[in-house]
Write a structure and sequence with these properties.
By secondary structure, this protein is of the alpha/beta class. The chain has two domains: 3-152 and 332-360, Medium-chain alcohol dehydrogenases, catalytic domain (Quinone Oxidoreductase, Chain A, domain 1), CATH 3.90.180.10; 167-305, NAD(P)-binding Rossmann-like Domain (Rossmann fold, 3-Layer(aba) Sandwich), CATH 3.40.50. The protein is built from eleven helices and 19 strands. The strands form four sheets. Strands 4, 6, 7, 10, 11, 18 and 19 form a seven-stranded mixed sheet that branches. It has a six-stranded parallel sheet with strand order 14-13-12-15-16-17, sandwiched between helices. Strands 3-8-9-5 form a four-stranded mixed sheet, with no helix packed on it. The chain binds nicotinamide-adenine-dinucleotide and zinc ion (2 copies). One zinc ion binds next to helix 2.
Length: 362
């Protein structure tokens, strides 16, 4: 099959047409990928910020049509349209039964199974970040795929698979933002814009959006941002204090993955406020927090993986929000490119052009 291959960190991807993929076993699905969004987590693997085994096929924000199923699959059938998540949710392990599905113990997101299901000329090829969807086909667990109505427009709905479940979920599930809350969002890519949409859906009274890219700041107001800030214009913490009457924001979200910005978020949050770390930092990054922020300031800092979402509940709920006009998916997908333009798609992200580029494999 055709696939975009990363052969070594910090190199361009190359599109090849001779990658072999295993047949689905037991609870696996073979899915014909129709569209896959380009997420910054893929870029972290390319630039070495996240570990990954090479050669690898990246891509984890995908939707498509089931081609074949393993003999223990009854939930979906060939021909069904699915949106996939990079994290299977088994529903039975310690984490799943206590309501923390994104921590499901049955898979390791960064460590592919050995031997991997992909190969090229007899040599192993590793699916990156739990999926490998910059390719014509992907092999996933049925626990990572959600059947959606056949008329779902996968060119825009694929972004539910990562950015939207993460960003909207960070607000509704991880943080539980309540009506009238004040919110700071740093980073206005697909994830940050989804956080803004989640905050708007939750009824936030102020959504303060920060990004160095002017185009993204302008676009963010169409998704619900009430104030935009260029971090180059001065102290974000002071600006948030000004906007919130000297109190600080109820909720702050880092959608960049920069430890300095997590600190900005903690400093910009009010006493008793919550900072949600959504961006993926480098493995070696650390943060220093004044310990008194906790004992006397009651500040909270929490992590967020995939919006603490259970895809089998969230994906169709998010589609319902889209159908009802509460969630803008089309506005997030600002470019569509063929797989051959995968490197240009990453260039879009690095340049902050639009919000999300989606690869069209249909
Ligand atoms: N926790 C999760 O489950 C999860 C899921 C998906 C993505 N992520 C991570 O979320 C982050 C964002 O992903 P994305 O695809 O939206 O990326 P993106 O590259 O499209 O957007 C990141 C944005 O951050 C902005 N930024 C950089 N420096 C900034 C600063 N000082 N202040 C404010 N904004 C700044 C950039 O200009 C850019 O617009 C990445 O680290 C990605 O790996 C995490
Ligand atoms: Zn992602
Ligand atoms: Zn589980």
């Amino acid at each position: 099959m055709r696939a975009a291959l990363l052969e070594a960190p910090n190199t361009d991807l190359v599109v090849v047409d001779d990658v072999e993929i295993d047949k689905p076993q037991a609870r696996q699905l073979l899915v014909r990928v129709s569209h896959c969004g380009v997420c910054h987590s893929d870029l972290h693997v390319i630039d070495g910020g996240l570990p990954g085994m090479t050669p690898t096929v990246l891509g984890h924000e995908a939707a498509g049509v089931v081609e074949a199923v393993g003999d223990a699959v009854s939930e979906v059938a060939p021909g069904d349209t699915v949106i996939m998540s990079l994290k299977p949710v088994c529903g039975r392990c310690y984490f799943c039964v206590r309501g923390q599905p994104t921590l499901c113990a049955t898979s390791n997101t960064l460590m592919p199974t050995i031997p991997p299901p992909l190969s090229r000329a007899g040599e192993p090829v590793y699916p990156g970040i739990g999926m490998g969807a910059f390719a014509e086909y992907v092999l996933v667990s049925v626990d990572a795929a959600v059947k959606v109505p056949d008329d779902t427009p996968t060119d825009i709905a694929c972004v539910i698979g990562c950015a939207v479940q993460t960003g909207v979920g960070a607000v509704l599930n991880t943080a539980g933002v309540e009506e009238g809350a004040t919110v700071l969002v740093q980073g206005l890519g697909g994830v940050g814009i989804s956080i803004i949409q989640g905050a708007r859906i939750a009824g936030a009274s102020q959504i303060i959006a920060v990004d160095p890219f002017a185009e993204r700041r302008t676009l963010s107001t169409g998704f619900g941002a009430t104030t935009t800030l260029d971090p180059a214009d001065g102290d974000v913490v002071a600006a948030v204090m000004d906007l919130t009457g000297g109190i600080g924001a109820d909720y702050t979200f880092d959608a960049v993955g920069n430890p300095a910005l997590i600190q900005v978020g903690i400093n910009a949050s009010r006493p008793g406020g919550t900072t949600v770390c959504v961006g993926v930092p480098k493995m070696t990054d650390e943060i220093t927090i004044p310990a008194l922020f906790f004992a006397m300031g009651e500040k909270k800092v929490t992590g967020c993986f995939l919006g603490s979402s259970n895809p089998s509940r969230e994906f169709n709920r998010l589609l319902d929000l889209w159908r009802a006009g509460h969630l803008d998916l089309a506005g997030m997908v600002t470019a569509r490119r063929p797989l051959e333009e995968i490197n240009e798609a990453f260039a879009d992200m690095k340049a902050g052009r639009g919000i999300r580029t989606v690869l069209d494999l249909s």
